[in-house]
Specification:
The complex is a heterodimer. By secondary structure, chain A is an alpha/beta fold. Chain A is built from ten helices and ten strands. In chain A, the strands form two sheets. An eight-stranded mixed sheet of chain A has the order 4-3-5-6-8-7-10-9, with helices on both faces. By secondary structure, chain B is of the alpha/beta class. In chain B, the strands form three sheets. Chain B has a seven-stranded mixed sheet, with helices on both faces. In chain B, strand 14, helix 13 and strand 15 form a beta-alpha-beta unit. The chains are: A alpha/beta, B alpha/beta.
Chain lengths: 295, 414
Amino acid sequence: MSRPVTDGGREMIATKHPLDPMIRAERLPNIWCPGCGIGIVLAAYVNALTKSTKPHEKNVCISGIGCTGRIAGYLNLDTYHTTHGRAIPFATGMAVAKPDLEVFVIAGDGDISTIGGNHLIHAARRNVDINVIMVNNFNYGMTGGQHGATTPLNARTHTSPYGNVESPFNVPYLVSAAGASFVARWTALHVIQVTKAIKRMMEIKGFAFLEVLSPCPPTYGEYNGYPAALDMMKHFRERSVVDNGADLSTVSVATGADDRIVVGNFVDRKRPSYDELLTELQARTGKKSGALTEA
Amino acid sequence: MKKMLTGNSSAAWGARISDVDYVCAYPITPQTEIVETLSSWVNKGALKARFVNFESEHSMFAAAGAASLTGARVFTCSSSQGLIYGLEMLYSIAGWRAPLVLVNVSRGLGMPMILQVEHGDVLATRDSGFIQLHAENCQEVLDLVLLGYKIAEDSNVMLPVVVNMDGFVLSFARQTVDIPQREAVEKFLPRYSHPRPLLGLESAPVTYGPTTSDGFVYSFYKYQLHKASLESRKVFQTAAQEFFKIFSRRHHAVEAEMTEDADYIFLVTNSYSSNVRAGVRSLRAKGEKVGMVKLKMLRPFPREELAEVLSQAKAVAVFEQNLAPGRGAIIYPEIAEALYHSQERPDVLLSFIGGLGGTPLGMPEMEYMLKKCKEFLKTGHGPEQPLLLYRSEDWESMKHSLSKTGLPVSREVS
């Protein structure tokens, strides 16, 4: 489908894009700022979807609130834009009730690790068969750049103008410790690796987690040395180190010019998923539900 | 000192000149500017307070209540989904009798999600035990923060206060605001000292929020809350008089304008009071005997004042920016109840719902409301359901949507 695209006030006609069938093109242009990595994650997810053997109607995408939360509105799938922090419990309800669905949560760091942090660790603990992509831009971008649970120590934001005094979560370490079957981290620069990780997440039984580090030029970038669209991407290229077998206790993210960013598919292990455990339980008790009411 | 301030900045200034000790924050549009302003002042040392950006509104309110009980003067703020997410803690804070000021920047509640104003958020807290004050303009935001601490910390009250302002309309609009001098504020609002603080070295150990399995004990505490809330009406009056003496600005729980000889009265809350005032003046200029009542205090509910000012009118139009599914408008039944016990009461009491999601209120709406009042006054009966206000272009779209979904094409919420 051809669609008019506005480019600095000029109208131009974009040719048909291969991912168009999976995108609600009428809602474009999107709300994301130039240089943002969320669109890359959206494209990677759609790419992975096009290669999935599962019919599209069996794929659902759930998002939370914030910049990344807007992903749900651009996908030509069954999607759900939930409340702030509640994407994971929403996904849990959906995945447990309909185990044949391929459920993805795509939400920001504020949503997943801060206001919804409790749900993240419990879904990993249960090993619910859902896939969570957390786009980490190190701050609350939508509300204009405040510090949250992933803002690096000493980083500057609108609510930490003289440096953040709170230690951030090392989210892959946290999720791995909680029991996830799959844990990975890449950056918005690693398009191929992100797409491959998403495809792997679709195969995983149990909780699969992917952190994608993203530039956020107008808020986080502006105050921390990466104001232009490509600055953080260049930093990702120069400072990323692929280490699939990394000791996760050492992979905290900081964005200083000399800080290393450890990326990779860190955890890929077989643990019974929540759905498998429930199915096994039902087989063992011979009852579908309500076992406690019958002695 | 007069400055051009947004509603959000006015709230921040209110907290600053109240010399708060502790600011609990969590970002949410359209409130975020308040906490950004305060954090910047705290970081610069312009405000000697502690600032914490929490992981959610729920934890933010929990910390706010606890800090208040230790004797700190606490400021917090939220909006919409955030306020509702923390609603559990609001009941707790009121139950702890923890005086603090919470500024809510009103925004509609999802789903569907919207950023513009609707009062469903703040009205959902109306039975929590918080004293509830609604601001018309940026000056009132600042004033009500000061008055809020004054009432909240009164030993006969000891209740938290929520000050409401409209998202976008006030939060991001600049108006001239008179920021009082610190010395004058200190005179009005002396240092807060909790009568039985947690961790107070000289006081005996205290326990807050124990479980009771006895209905009598439970009802005793709830009744105390109710009595304290009612008491705050008198405290508000006294505080407002003192406020006027020091700052020369008047505040009343119920504010009547041009009502002395009015046959028709428009009742309104929050920022759209300014629109209604302008509309009333225009209608007056055309010879219509109209007036307005602005409801500034929602909790405790100023029933007697309302009854007194409304009972003389022939018709009252209650304009609200909320829609409670299965009920209609939220404040209207409370107005009806206030009038029920009056010897004299208006022949017509109409409920109008408009301004949802920030839709406009101007002369077309004012004229429509007046027309309906006259119409029902003539026929002697009014609609049993609220009437929806729409601009003609919106109404055309609405009619289209209603007919598509098979719902009756009527402004009446039936």
